[in-house]
Amino acid sequence: MKKKSSSAKQILLVANGDLRLSANQVCWPEQARMEATLATALKAEGYKLVRAHPYDRTKKHGFIDSQKMGMEVFRGIDPDVPLIVAECVWQYSQHLLPGLSTHRAPILTVANWSGTWPGLVGMLNLNGSLTKMGVSYSTLWSEQFTDAYFKNGLRQWLTEGVVTHDQSHVRSLSLLKLPGADEQLGRTVARRLRDRKAILGVFDEGCMGMHNAIIPDELLNPTGVFKERLSQSALYAAMQQVSDAEAAEVLRWMQQKGMKFNWGADEATELTEAQTLLQCKMYVAAVRIAAEFGCDTIGIQYQQGLKDLAPASDLVEGTLNNVDRPPVLCSQTGEVLFDGDALPHFNEVDECAGLDGLVTNRLWKELGFAPENTLHDLRWGAPYKGQGINDYVWVFLISGAVPPAHFARGWKDASSERQPPMYFRLGGGTIKGISKPGWIVWSRVFVMNGKLCADLGVAEVVKLPPKETEHRWRETTPQWPIMHAVLKGITRDQMMARHKSNHIQVVYTPNEKQAHRACRIKAAALAELGLEVSLCGEVRLS
User: Fold this and answer.
1) Which of 100, 135, 160 is the last residue before a domain boundary?
2) How many domains does the chain have?
3) Are 440 and 345 in a shared domain?
4) Are 299 and 203 in contact (CB under 8 A)?
5) Residue 166: inside a domain, yes or no?
6) In what order do the strands lie in the sheet with 83-87?
7) Contact 202, 305 (CB under 8 A)
8) What are the helix (H) ranges across 76-173?
9) Of 87, 97, 95, 103, which Cα lies nearest the Cα of 130?
């Protein structure tokens, strides 16, 4: 039965969740608290918040947990009633996209500002997916839902149907003049990539509902990059062909480099040596398949499919992204594959990050810079004052794809801890570490208005005291590598309002001056490939 739209004072709410029951059950109490707080905020404005779907006593949560359920829920929603999508957890966007794509009334996505409960990450993914689909929406975020920024935005949405945010930090490259040498170098490298072409190896497309992470072929191919669609079942099969001795040699190499493995005995809750050795087999298998198909970059989905067969892929991903990594021999010729090179890997098969990572790798090698780059979750952040820092410091965090080159002493600063059982039943370790201080270029490729776009900026990675780092790890996921980043010329709310993804790409440069130069060169390269490029924040033009 459809909800009646006669009451102008009613606002409907949907709560989207994970596909995995364990995650939904663990996260439900926090979602319930968030919804109660939202209801109070709306009541203060004279509106009643009404859930569009009930709590499920059998499942013990109230999330939409499948695309099938999402379609059923939206069949009972009047498309002309304003709708809030409330997120305090990671969510699979495909559960909601069919219904939201035809919803006519104003849509507001809302997230809690928390590191522990990754609603911010989930909401950014949903926002990026809605942007790609061309669905109009507004967005808000808050710690307590009582601050002026949130209340003013909510009031505007209730009265006008939209929320406006300051995005003055965004400058279209088409309106800017770059130094001639920078533009020429960027465009030359890009033309070389486009003319020679490259292969993006995709191990099963579409991970965890990340519609925004899939680049349609008709948009990707004009850049000179083409997909090789591979199967994770083939990767698993190739793992079975890797000998125990080969896996042991990969592990021995890492240990000799100084990496620590925090092993235990309980397969269900601890990292074990057996899990690590299976990850080493996955690493060898991935390199061999990439070589066989001529891939210039690869992405493994893992979270669906492989998660039921093998330990996590994260140790593999960070190792692939590093120039200094265990050698992998061709099983037929004995030659070292991709010798002396990183094999860029895009975590969670995020193709936007894959294109970005490939372009970055080529450019940074041309510049003579260390080419190791990775994506992170734009996970959370908080102000920090002390030790020469007085700024908003973001927490960039990802499940293990970070190359050891991003740590001060490389492999010696890397450790491996078991992935949380809630998400990773079969375990497997990460590459954990603290990203070294320095200057980076950050970026994001995304789809908007039917076109490939890219935002770029400059950031400083800062060193926080060990106590503060541990606090931020405890507030997020302590098993994962962390980066403390200060975005230059961009406030917290500007970044949230503009960013069209849960992911952000990062790469180091030798110093501040080179960071600005490299950002300009990369902007020119992406523009040459046909992307609509914007420089964000303080990016110097000379």
Assistant:
1) 160
2) 2
3) yes
4) yes
5) no
6) 48-51, 10-14, 83-87, 107-112, 138-142
7) no
8) 97-100, 119-133, 148-160
9) 97
